[in-house]
Amino acid sequence: MNSNDIHGPVSDDFARVNDLIFAQLSSRVPLVEKIGHYIVSSGGKRLRPLLVLLTSRALGYPGQGHLKLAAVIEFLHTATLLHDDVVDTSDLRRGKPTANANWGNASSILVGDYLYARAFQVMVSLDNMPVMDVLSAATAEIAEGEVMQLTNARNPDLNEDQYMAVIRSKTAMLFQAATHAAALLGSASVRDKEAMRDYGLHLGLAFQLVDDVLDYSGDVAEMGKNVGDDLAEGKCTLPLIQAMKVCSEADRQLIRQTIRKGGLENLERICQIVKDSGAINYTLNKAREQAELATRCTDVLAPSPSKNSLLALTELAVSRSV
């Protein structure tokens, strides 16, 4: 199933959400609108709002609140991107210069703050306390995940469990919040709500695991960011953790030193070590396990085009690298 087919069941809703996002970006401060429009127009797939729309429709939600919820999720995600790029000193996002590369760190942080505030304004208008509870808790946990990642930077002793805790909070939590909150909008059963909550979590983990593989085996055109960004920032991701378990002592020390130092001086050699060690396949297999768990969560859903799209997203999560 291609991207158009995945969007097909909710294409009208998706277009309405896109219009709503831009309408909600209005501000009396021109720079807020300029940066906001720049980043939300920068080629993102709107995957997280898509999850809101597909989940709500797959569960038979008859209302319109899912449109606002999808916009909220996109604003939360966009705010984290603005802040992430400042923290990571990134200069490329989705194949384009980052907002901080164009307008500086201060402007990016402040507009990110505005988007968080705007998200909560729209969220309040939903008048749904369970949804607000899920989204506010997720926002706090995502921030904790960012701090966890920051404190783990340049730490070559990070283990797999610690790594999984970081990506669960930093990345998978917003996927989980999108599908869980969407399920809470309607009259879904407790079983269905829990299943869709878990679907989002496992899908988010699968996507992040593959993203971390692509940092050592992808290319700029496919990723929309520079190959080796994680290594340059001293991030110890699963491909490196696994490679250090099985490679030679000399290679292990090279990886450890590079994590501590950061930079791209040893990128080519470390990419080769990661590939030769089997760490790429190891990490991809972990991603496939998460995608399979996500697939099983959809067993609670009745057959529908939206369910088919949710299943297709689990395949897309792991096929981006092959």
Automatic annotation (TrEMBL):
<dbReference type="GO" id="GO:0046872">
    <property type="term" value="F:metal ion binding"/>
</dbReference>
<keyword id="KW-0479">Metal-binding</keyword>
<comment type="function">
    <text>Supplies octaprenyl diphosphate, the precursor for the side chain of the isoprenoid quinones ubiquinone and menaquinone.</text>
</comment>
<dbReference type="GO" id="GO:0008299">
    <property type="term" value="P:isoprenoid biosynthetic process"/>
</dbReference>
<dbReference type="InterPro" id="IPR000092">
    <property type="entry name" value="Polyprenyl_synt"/>
</dbReference>
<dbReference type="InterPro" id="IPR008949">
    <property type="entry name" value="Isoprenoid_synthase_dom_sf"/>
</dbReference>
<dbReference type="InterPro" id="IPR033749">
    <property type="entry name" value="Polyprenyl_synt_CS"/>
</dbReference>
<comment type="similarity">
    <text>Belongs to the FPP/GGPP synthase family.</text>
</comment>
<keyword id="KW-0460">Magnesium</keyword>
<dbReference type="GO" id="GO:0106350">
    <property type="term" value="F:all-trans-octaprenyl-diphosphate synthase activity"/>
</dbReference>
<protein>
    <recommendedName>
        <fullName>Octaprenyl diphosphate synthase</fullName>
        <ecNumber>2.5.1.90</ecNumber>
    </recommendedName>
</protein>
<keyword id="KW-0808">Transferase</keyword>
<dbReference type="Pfam" id="PF00348">
    <property type="entry name" value="polyprenyl_synt"/>
</dbReference>
